[in-house]
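New to this. Look over this protein:
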Amino acid sequence: MKKSMKLSSLGMMLVMAGISQLGHAQSLASTPRQLGSVDAVINSLSNQQSINPLSARSAGTTTGLETIVSHVHNKDGLVSISGRAADSNNSTFYLKGSNKSLRGYLIKHDSKQAYEYSTDAKGIVFVVEVPIAKVIPDFDAKWVAATNAATATIASAVHPVYSAFAQRQAPHIGPYNNEDVTKLESKPGSPWVFYLNTTAVMSGSTPLNGVTKENMYRAWQVVASQYSMYNINITTNAAVYNAAKSANILRTGVINFVNQDGRSNAPLSSFGTTSAGTLYRNPSSGFDYGYGIGMTAAHEVGHQMGMSHDHGGTGGEYFEGIAAYQWGPIMGNYWMGANWANSLWTWSKGEYNTATNFEDDLRITNVNENVPFVADDNVNGKALVISNTGVIGPAQNFGQIEKTGDTDAFTFTVTGNGKLDLKIEPIEYFGMLDVDAKIYNSANTLVASSNKGVNRTAEFVALNLPAGSYRLVIAGGAEGTPSNGFSNYSSLGYYGMSGTLVGSTPPADVVLTSGVALGGQSGSAGTWNYYAIDVPSGKTSVVFSINGANGDADLFSQLTVKPTATAYKCKSDGSTSIETCTVSAPAAGRYYLGVYAYSAYSALTVKATVN
């Protein structure tokens, strides 16, 4: 529900709630002040009654901390309240939590004042003045000084390059292809949504001030890549955000693009409220808009999730990374790696030797803000998809390292003397994955390994393999040591594979019988399952169909080789798992039906009918 109301004297609320007031005023900056019980505060706000953050002030004392509430969500024990200071339009007020505990801030930008709300073990809400840099870290004077010099040279930065393996294995992977940049979604259907509100920098679907649609796409793509380990939909679609906000605002966040110069900033822990971050842009400043704005947005969203800056080293409060490994924390001074060809910016828990902030960034988003990790896309291992000519392609052979320590296994068999040439590389535009790959034989003996230094890829070149069964294991890599380098803590993201295997035995085809449905099929998000049917000459058509009641399975078919999302005879890729496509006047041969799991599905029926 939405309500708009002015919050004035707390005294009336305290009297009505039966809570006694203290008899004299004290400095808010020096002493936390009691507001009352969580229930009393929530009821006061919800009923448009009065609340004043300074509970001990006597009647008639003006505190300047009255607030105007614009949004109240109180449903199923979950609470989110947003608004602003009554005496300042340039301010933010938000509380969130449950009917047992509230936390939040009142921020007055013009006067550089901030007030923190918290709840003790007895369920009593308190407020105390805090430095504004605690709540808006990017207002800190040292951060401004540290980044100004770096951003001045960003025009010469070495920007990410798309991997040739990036072929839309997920919605945010691959180069711009004329998508509507106001309708982008990284994980369609997820109830967790973060909205990049680009309204103020767009004229309809066209960016203002000469910024290209591709750069808008890449700004979104950077944020989507750095949060791809979570089941959260990074979107530019207002309708998607509004629907998610109506369902449960505590699963949503928003940052507003602003069409002017300024220092981007975001309120600490404002995810779950309508209190937005602010992302200024300056397309005339010379730096790459997609890369620079995307990096800044990912950093600011981190603040909204509750992360502070990563400190230490020569950067003081804002760690500048480790040049020898071209690595740094995204919550540090990420501009300092502008001239690193293979820069890697990740989440951190303060493992480097000069760290002074030991927050567990991944835990903050997952536990503190209740954003779940995505499901494991390779739980029990998969067969490496190899063509009849020994080609290993990235459209079929890819995956995601979702959590710290996750591994993905791919099995294959070699007949006779085999030779493997295989490259594995990250496929997100600005991801966090450093690839580590190992090959084991059937005795679980390590045969070969690769984790190329300061390169992010793994590669096996002319690797001779005797006949036998093998297992390729891909994991997040690490370089140096955790104290001088980086661990695999946040080495997460999507990868793709490309190469050849001579002397391989492709997995046997699952052959369908015309008109006979094959039931009980399932697939995890981002995976392919393949089926085959032999079509004699002289037939009029072959009809492919799938039917399922859950998930989003897409259907593709191709002659002779397995289809991909870009190479097919026919396809059907709607928003459900009920799809049909037809090849008319088919040439004789073996047709492959490929089912791609846009989202996970189960109990799917697959059928092909030759007419």
